Amino acid sequence: MKLTNIIAVFCFSLTGFTQVQTEGDYVSEVWVADQGDGTYKNPILHADYSDPDVTRAGDDYYMTSSSFNAAPGLPILHSKDLVNWELINYALPKQVPIEHFNTPQHGNGVWAPAIRYHNNEFYIYWGDPDFGIYMVKTNDPAGEWSAPILVMEAKGAIDPCPLWDEDGKAYLVHAWAGSRAGVKSLLTVHKMTPDGTKVLDEGRHVFDGHENHPTIEGSKFYKRNGYYYIFAPAGGVSTGWQLILRSKNVYGPYEEKVVLEQGSTKINGPHQGAWVETPQGEDWFYHFQDVDAYGRIVHLQPMSWKNDWPVMGEDKDGNGIGEPVLEYKKPKVGKPYKVVTPKETDEFTEDSLGIQWQWNANPNLLWYAKLPGNDYLRLFSIAQPEEAKNLWEAPNILLQKFPAPVFTARSKITLVPEDADKSRKVGLIVMGRDYFTLTITQKNGEYYLQQTEAKNADKGSEEEIVNEKRLKSNTVYVKVEVAAPKAECQFMYSENGKKYKEIGEPFNARVGKWMGAKVGLFSISPSGAKRGGYADIEYFRIEE
Question: What Enzyme Commission number(s) apply to this enzyme (predicted)?
Answer without folding.
Answer: 3.2.1.55
